[in-house]
Each structure stands twice: as structure tokens, then as C-alpha cells.
């Protein structure tokens, strides 16, 4: 049997003991894990934004077509009214 004693609580958990290196690796692992989680959240947000952007784009195209159609119909109606007025006033 050896004469080494087990490290104390203070030695293991951050007061300059021999286990500080293990804590640094644990902290690094946590930071990498947090970065990966943030990356996954960012990817999910981008995907949701992309879907929303496609819906907005489709809605804008449909709206523009309706405006164009309505304007065209309105101009035709005005021309028709003007021609009726001009032909009836003769």
C-alpha cells in the first residue's frame, strides 16, 4: 500500500490543487457544448425564417398580381366611361 493520501475537497475543486486541469477540461467541454447548442438554435431559427420569407414572398407576389389586375380593370372601366360620355354628348 502506498503512503499517498487522497486529495482533499479543496484540492479537487479549484483552490490550486492537482485536479485544476480536469476542471479546465470540463469548462472547455461545457463551452463547446454551449456553442454547439447555440449553433443548433441558430440553424433552427434560420430554417424558420427561410420558411417565413418564402411565405411572405408568395403573399407579396399574389398581392402584386391582384393590384395589377385591379388597376388594369379600373383603367379599362374609366376608358369605357369616358368613351360612353363622349359618344353620348355628340
From TrEMBL:
Organism, as annotated: Kalanchoe fedtschenkoi
Basic and acidic residues bias spans: 22-43
Protein name as catalogued: Uncharacterized protein
Residues covered by region (Disordered): 1-43
Amino acid at each position: 500500500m502506498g503512503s499517498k493520501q487522497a486529495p482533499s475537497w479543496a484540492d479537487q475543486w479549484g483552490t490550486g490543487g492537482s485536479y485544476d486541469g480536469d476542471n479546465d477540461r470540463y469548462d472547455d467541454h461545457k463551452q463547446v457544448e454551449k456553442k454547439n447548442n447555440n449553433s443548433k438554435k441558430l440553424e433552427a431559427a434560420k430554417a424558420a425564417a427561410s420558411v417565413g420569407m418564402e411565405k411572405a414572398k408568395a403573399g407579396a407576389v399574389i398581392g402584386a398580381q391582384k393590384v395589377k389586375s385591379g388597376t388594369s380593370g379600373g383603367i379599362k372601366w374609366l376608358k369605357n366611361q369616358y368613351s360612353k360620355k363622349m359618344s353620348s354628348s355628340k
